[in-house]
Amino acid sequence: MTRFHSYSRSLGVIAGLALATAAGHASAETRGYVVSWFGVSTYYGNESDCPDGLNPMSTEFYKRELIRLGYSDPDATKLLKDFPGNPGRADGEYIKIMGTRGDKKTNVYAHPESSYDPGLKEIKGKFAYGFNLDGKTDSPISFTDPDTGEQGIKNQYYRTLGCIRSFRAPPPAHPTLAQAQWDVLRDEMPAWLIEISGITDPKNSDNVTVTISRGVDHISRDTTGGVRSDMSFKVDPDPRTHNVLHGSIKNGVLTTDASDIRIVADPFLIPEFNWKQARLKLKLNDDGTLKGILGGYHDWYALYWSYAESGWVEEHSASVDMPALYYSLKRNADAYPDATGQNTAISTAYEVEAVPAFVLHTDDKNDKKVSDAGGSIQVRHVEEANMGGWLRKLGW
Amino acid sequence: MVMSKSPTRFFGALGFVAAIALTGCGPKDDAPVTKGGPVSLRRLTEPEYRQIVADVFGTTIKVPGRFEPDVRDNGLIAVGTSRESVAGTGLEEYDLTARGIAAQVVDDAHRTTLVPCTPAKANDRDDACATKFIARTGRMLFRRPMTQDELQTQVKDAGEAASKLGNFYTGLEMSVGAMLVSPQFLFRQEASEADPDNAGQRRLDAYSKASRLSFFLWDTTPDADLLEAAQKGDLDTDAGIAKQVDRMTNSPRLASGVRAFFSDMLGFDGFVSLAKDPQIYPKYSSQVSVDAQEQTLRTLTDLLVTNNGDYRDIFTTRKTYLTRLLGSVYGVPVMTSTGWEPHEYAENDPRAGILTEISFVSLHSHPGRSSPTIRGKALRQVFLCQKVPDPPGNVNFNLVNDTKNPAFHTARSRLGAHINQPTCAGCHKIMDPVGLAMENFDSAGGFRTTENDVAIETNGEIDGMKFSDAIGFTKAVHDHPAVPVCLVNRLYAFGTGRAGTKDEAEWLNYQTKQFVNSGYKVPELMRRIASSKAFYRISTPGTDANNATLSMAGTSTQTEAVK
Amino acid sequence: MSASMNATRRNVLRGMMGGAAVSVGLPFLDCFLNTNGTALASGAPLPVAFSTFFWGCGLNPGRWEPKTIGANYDMNIESAALQPFKSRINVLSGFKVFLDGKGARPHFTGEMAILTGDVPREQPNYASLDSIVADTIGTRTRFRSLEVTGTGKPTDSLSRRSASVSNPAEISPAALYTRVFGPDFTDPNAADFKPDPRVMVRRSVLSGVTDQREALLKQVGVNDRQRLDEYFTAVRQLEQQLDLQLQKPAPLEACSKSAQPTDAEIGTEIDNVVANHKLFAQILAHAVACDQTHVTNIVFGEATSPLRRPGVAMTHHISTHEEPMDPVLGYQPNATYFMVRIVESLAFYLQTLDSIKEGDGTLLDRTLMLAHSETGFAKVHSLENIPMFIAGGAGGRIKTGMHIQAKGEPVTRVGLTIQQALGVPVDSWGTMSLATSKPISEILV
After folding, report:
1. Which of C207, C223, C246 is at the close of a domain?
2. How many C-beta atoms surround the C-beta of residue C172 within 10 A?
3. Domain end among A84, A114, A144
4. CA distance B215 to B43
5. How far apart are CA C289 and CA C47, in angstroms?
6. Cα–Cα distance between B512 and B510 in angstroms, integer?
7. A389 contact B CB<8A
8. Is the whole model's pTM more than 0.95, yes or no?
9. Are residue A74 and residue A197 in the same domain, yes or no?
10. Same-domain status, C345 and C312
11. Helix, strand or coil for residue A272?
12. In this predicted structure, what is the pLDDT of residue C250?
């Protein structure tokens, strides 16, 4: 079995690195991470976010729809009483009514335009996280970053989702739906990996490269339920799962230039993300972890379908009125117009957190079996020094 | 590393009297004659039980149930088993387990391979077929042929059960269940006989020899070949013993024996009740503790068996094996997604040898903090066979327990204050300097250079050998003269189920010298012990005057002799 | 015991096995005596009972688990109703579910991990804990187990014989009453008694072991003779247990029919669910007291808890997700209302078991109850710190009155502990990362 070599975390080596950095002629360093949290970024302010109020609960808008469809108030109440799980009655009857509420025959989730626009209550506040994706500060859709005061932030996706209860949570809590989705996926999906190379000083480095890729291994947890740090992850050799961005670190915060980012995810969340003009802003925390934002333009219909494909399930449990969501996204889309002038993409921002990990590369031509358990694995090379784990211990 | 070998420092600390130098050592391969010890009656350990079931009935048979915990005596469970019995609840567990196994043995999936004949009628007794099955199975389970009485009883019971319940195989099932709870199976009962070559002396009978050999070298019941050798009388000749020992030490199964011995000696049964505070050590999961034991056993068998290495190198070897999970604790990358891969610590790595592995440092720590004292004590007891007294009952441990005391940032400073109490100082001097060397490893096996932001000092000394860090410490242990003495004593006790006697001290000294001269090769040592006459010699009743167990002082005498 | 007495007993047994009719009062004199030989062994322990109590959507983290670990704890706010029973309850916090890369299915994965030791991708892969236990303690009763559910759907039963066979639950207390105490109910005191032939065979075979005693003792020295004698004493105890199984059972003084119930409306409205739960609790407790079953399973409400209050649109389940956290209280008031009602109902069940006196103890003393939910914090479907309680003395097989905090340990340790306490021959349980061979030894006697 081939060994990878020159890999150690001995005291001597750590001391050597520290010295080299202090002396100012350090070789660039690469740090590895595994994503431990990923979810849509929502700013939680106060009532001024949603001056029109929050969107109704599913039980409320379902009743509204039943009455619109001609059911009497007592009949509608009776239908709703114990849904789901009304004893002696199949859930299907009710679901069928709701699932075809547009024109009484078409699947309203697949064909939201079969329904009228019930009107989604949207964010009208001033603040949101994200990036100034189009470089304009005077646009009427601009938000202000609540932490840095940066003007011109574009995050129309938040404008659509922000007044739905399941997307609202006071920090440090994450919004319910995003938390529930990520909780399931982080154990189930191959891990998402981040490497930052070219770090000459973790506080200030002018020219760093950020690679986002998919692993072949799953994350594992520690005894507190958190994502276990310092685990090893092999990178999926498929180059389509790799994204390379360029950027710099200033005062401990990494920002990148705009680039397209493609991340293969999971149908439970979205089969894959495809951002245009995407960028990252990540703080390199002293404990070795990363925390920040990924923002970019995304095909809004794909985002709609990521919720609507579950039909009544997420509509009901997360109280997302799907036709209302559809019309809102369509209305708020702000980039990449098609021939008719309808914008096809919407500005988005997502929260990203990551913990130190060993990110390992294998020769994609000869390592077809890297994900097999227990087989003899031919390791071609290991990237030098992607060692977030160690540096955390040094207190950097 | 500065080393100063001062016998007074080495033994003075424990108040040892460095005594008799060995006199009258005979020609090189002429071992001193011993008087032997008593025959033993040893309860099977859980690993032995499981291995036997796998060997006799196949690995597809599950062993359901739990086992009574084993007791440790003279540093080994193998010795403790010579004191254990079976109490009411324990027998209930054995009975449940036995019935669970018996039902599988005769089920549709197994009966065709395990039952050597087909009954005339499946719904009634067939004594001829039952006799074939029971005689064959009983011979393996009882480690000797069944007596006529035993066989007849089993066949009769199986027959009556078969008629009563209308199923031949249910009859066999009942019989297997009964054999698995019988004392002949649960206890390794040895028998002795007069030694025809040495008038007035006794030795183990042939089947008892076969059992000793097999459990010592392979950690399981004798196989067919060995039982046949016993039956033919081969085991009553030196040549016959030598032939079997050669066969068995050259078999890959020797690794099982080595693993069993070290699991026992290293006290790995302690992991069952080991707990770590999850908030302080979030990486220490149950699986980490399982992997940590396996890592050490793989390190040991790879070095000692596969590579026939120097035993002392277990303390200094940089070669080991890792899983991804262990990699996250050690902070090193591991490529293999699931399973093990070899790993070599770098030359300047703070880790080397099994003392710096997770298994040792975590097993000998508190749930929420490391313990130089416990580690120091464990090192002396486990690897040097020294006995360290328990603390007096009225000690106030508040000072050492409080890891957040602003006046004492590190374990060294806390212990320094603690041992100002005169009743404690004597013993702590023996334990703490040893354990402090490993303070870079926290209670869960993680590496650290500071405690409460204060740099950890790891310098110290063991019995006159000074060191500045864990690596220096492991080298000092490597060169400690008690290391080979202790191993020889432990291995002999593991094989015989009893601590060596004073009468056997000279013989153990001799074996230790051979071990040292052979380059500290463990398989060779096991071969020598298994081939020796002493291993099979039984004391004559009434002449047990010299059967007093070898004490610590006895061990130290041997240490002196080796030096 | 002399060899000749052995032989006598053996022959009597052989006689029993040969003939169908068995008269009580066999000359088993030595077996029927207690160890002092001073009294008849009429104080044979009553059989141990196992019970589960399940509810959906958990409890609020930090508000249900005691603030201190170990013995002498006090119940936290949401578990306050259990305070009178705290010395007979172990609170189990911090246990979690490992997924091994399999997705968590909300309101399904948690209960599967606890009850089957496995995270199934779709359908359950294994029998449930109560069925495993019933195979050991419930094989000789009229019902191997009894299942009820409070929210009206018979399929809301978590008890399953195997991957494919589920034990459907009763939804109506009246129907359960008829099933247990209706025409098919026979007074345990009046029934004819037929001993189990398999037990007879085991008893006989075990005598074969005892018969070797003299021969073996001859071969060993004094110390080892003592050890072997201890072993043979244990064999004799086992023989006595089997003898008891071959006897006509002792009269069950505590056995009486429960009151004829009248169902409250079957549905999801909390007051009705609680009312029916009380009826279920009574019937099940009396069923165990009358030895009709040793295993009972209560689903208070299904996992996606459909409990509702009149006039409030959000069900319990929906509240856990959608109801805002009260900024002052720090929890969701409506969701929490249901949680408190559920814990009160659990306390009522314990009270019911404890009210049935059996000799010096109560039915609760010989019951081992596992009360658990399926999620830690329902708002996010967390699979950590799922609320679990073990109650009752299990006939002296477990110790109670402790708060066991096992952060990050697999939930399967609980199931393994229960199986071992109840005599299931198992040394490890669970699949993949849920596999454990570590029972909670602190509570095992």
Report:
1. C246
2. 18
3. A114
4. 12
5. 10
6. 5
7. yes
8. no
9. no
10. yes
11. strand
12. 64
* Closest-approach residue (CA) in chain C for A190: C101
- Torsion angles phi and psi, residue A37, rounded to 5: -150, 135
For residue range C393-428, list pLDDT tens digits in order.
999 999 999 999 998 889 999 999 999 999 898 889
At position A191, the amino acid (one-letter code) is: A
- Give the residues of chain B that fall short of pLDDT 50: 1-29, 543-546, 551-563
Cβ pair B350:A390 closer than 8 A: no
Residue C227 sits in which domain range?
3-43+196-246
Do C97 and C234 belong to one domain? Answer: no
Instruction: Provide the ipTM.
Output: 0.84
Q: Where a domain ends, among C246, C266, C283?
A: C246
Q: Range of A87's domain?
A: 58-114
Amino acid at B277: D
Q: Which chain B residues have a beta carbon less than 8 Å from that of A19?
A: none
Say if residue A176 is in the same domain as residue A308: yes
User: A353 has which bridge partners?
Assistant: A37, A291
Report how far residue B538's alpha carbon sits from residue A140's, in angstroms, rounded to the nearest whole number.
99
A372-382 burial, b for 16+ CB within 10 Å, e for fewer? eeeeebebeeb
Helix (H) / strand (E) element for A308: namely helix A300-308
Please work out, in degrees rounded to the nearest 5, the angle formed at the alpha carbon of residue C250 by the alpha carbons of C392 and C288: 35
Q: Is residue C442 part of a domain?
A: no
Q: Tell me, what DSSP letter sits at residue C150?
A: S
pLDDT given for residue C379 in this prediction:
83
Helices B88-105/B46-57 angle, 10° precision: 20
Could you read off the pLDDT of C332-345 as tens digits, one per residue? 999 999 999 999 99
- CB distance C321 to A318 below 8 Å: yes
Task: Give the count of domains, chain A.
Answer: 2
Inter-chain CB proximity A7 and B331 less than 8 Å = no
- For residue B42, the one-letter residue type is R
CA C341 to chain centre: 23
CATH number of the domain residue C73 falls in: 3.40.720
Same domain, A241 and A381: yes
Looking at the fold, whether A43 and A105 belong to one and the same domain comes out as no
User: Could you tell me if residue C440 is inside a domain?
Assistant: no
Same domain, A77 and A208: no
Question: Could you tell me if residue A46 is inside a domain?
Answer: yes
User: Using the beta-carbon criterion (under 8 Å), do A85 and C314 form an inter-chain contact?
Assistant: no
Neighboring chain C residues of B66 at a CB cutoff of 8 Å: 420, 425-427, 439
State whether A264 and A321 are in the same domain.
Answer: yes
CB contact under 8 A, B285 and C408: yes
The reply to whether residue C212 touches residue B150, judged by beta carbons under 8 angstroms, is yes
SS3 category, C182: coil
A326 lies in the same domain as A367: yes
